[in-house]
């Protein structure tokens, strides 16, 4: 019975319910009727139905079980505190999750101009890294244009999927294997389609800080951040809070956009972050006759990469050039990322190639404390 229940995972925490202490009673009588009690953290949590269905299915599938009696209850405050401690492990309460010694690679995606496809690229990279088996989190810090929930299917009918709160721990919704948190999830009952975030710098800083502290991401291989375009308060806050972050610059092939893209990368450098590459988006659109229409010109990505490369910082590579593609755009509009639904699409295929190259580079141990002391 326990082995069967080990297969039931909490969809938000992505760990077996047995390991999380959520299963409080398991017994089977002589007639083969299995009786299981499982406790949810809070009543009506979004994951509840799925957990209940999976528990019933797992119980019924265990060897020798002829009938399943599954009871779902809710934890007492004391049980919930014990649960939070188990989930957080020895990191303790409210400790920063992505400090300099963290093994998680933090990649902030920035752009100079708005509308160059930064959010689409970030979401596509996150989903394809998760598809390759990495544990991935995504922070949508684009306050003025939070579009990640829509791109990842978390914004149906004008309301954005809310994170689950277990006391002071916030569990991010999971989309296509990616733990996602967005400013758009914290607007209360307001309709995100017609709500503007007009917070000043300190409020934005606190919000990003809270995302990194109270949102429980667990052990991530990669945390991606979708920054607002340009060089504003958020970029500076992220630089201060995550100086070890690596930065990807998204730009279009238009040479005129290069200056502003380079400037956004230079702000990241000033806060100690490392620019690891440039992704050109909205490159040539393939025509039915096989020719290519360079709607936004050519060469912008290579130009930004070249201007960011120097002796001090080494070579900043152009990691890929993602073409314009109606299929890629439709995937974003419908919340079904093309990298999963339509991997042959030319834009999706190029993004998959870039994500595979990124996945191969782990975070090095250089400069980090290994947490061991000499005797
Ligand atoms: N390669 C592409 N081919 C076709 N459409 C694209 C491509 N990349 C992005 N788009 C579309 O362009 C629009 C803008 O993209 P997106 O929202 O990702 O840009 P952004 O840079 O994050 O914008 P902002 O930061 O200003 O919010 C979206 O409608 C998106 O679907």
Task: Give the structure's gist in a few sentences.
Residues 2-70 form the MIP18 family-like domain. The protein is an alpha/beta fold. It contains twelve helices and 17 strands.
Q: How would you describe what is shown here?
A:
- Homodimer.
- With 375 residues, this protein is an alpha/beta fold.
- It has two domains: 2-89, GMP Synthetase, Chain A, domain 3 (2-Layer Sandwich), CATH 3.30.300; 105-359, Rossmann fold.
- 32% of the residues lie in helices and 22% in strands.
- The protein has twelve helices and 17 strands.
- The strands form five sheets. The protein has an eight-stranded mixed β-sheet with strand order 10-11-7-12-6-13-14-17, with helices on both faces.
- Helix 4 crosses helix 12 (346-359), helix 6 (201-214) runs parallel beside helix 7 (233-241) and helix 8 runs parallel beside helix 9 (300-308).
- The chain is globular, with a radius of gyration of 23 Å.
- 43% of the residues are buried.
- The model has no long low-confidence stretch (mean pLDDT 87).
- Adenosine-5'-triphosphate binds at residues 111, 114-120, 142, 145, 147, 229, 281-282, 322, 324-325, 328-329, 332, 347.
Number of helical regions: 12
**What fold name goes in the CATH topology slot of the largest domain?**
Rossmann fold
- Which compounds are bound in this model? adenosine-5'-triphosphate
Q: Which word captures the global form?
A: globular
Q: Name the poorly predicted regions.
A: none
Which architecture of the largest domain would the CATH scheme give at its second level? Answer: 3-Layer(aba) Sandwich
CA-CA gap between termini: 45 Å
